[in-house]
Amino acid sequence: MSSKKSKDPCKVSACRIQTCLKEHKFDETRCYDVLEAMRQCCLKWHQVSLCCSGIKLDRDYLADKEAADREREQQQKKQQQQE
């Protein structure tokens, strides 16, 4: 009697998020790519994936990444000007 558990289709993406966050000292801005991949998975599978409970389906992580990158560049330019 072996019962097959259905695999959560977004579990791999969820694990990638945890790995990325640990590698970047829990700085979410460094993990927008993997967060967006998770969001895309959840857009497709949110009705069956337990991993999707904390993902905001309407948030555009790529736009957030671009904004964070621009802010980082501005800070770097500002530091260079002060030197």
TrEMBL record:
Instruction: Provide the Gene Ontology terms for cellular component.
Output: mitochondrial intermembrane space
Location within or outside the cell: Mitochondrion
This protein's major location comes to: mitochondrion
User: Disulfide connectivity?
Assistant: C10-C41, C20-C31, C42-C52
- Keyword field: Disulfide bond, Mitochondrion
Against Pfam families, the record matches this protein to: CMC4 (PF08991)
Q: Which InterPro entries match?
A: CMC4, Cys_alpha_HP_mot_SF
Family membership: Belongs to the CMC4 family.
What's this protein's name?
Cx9C motif-containing protein 4
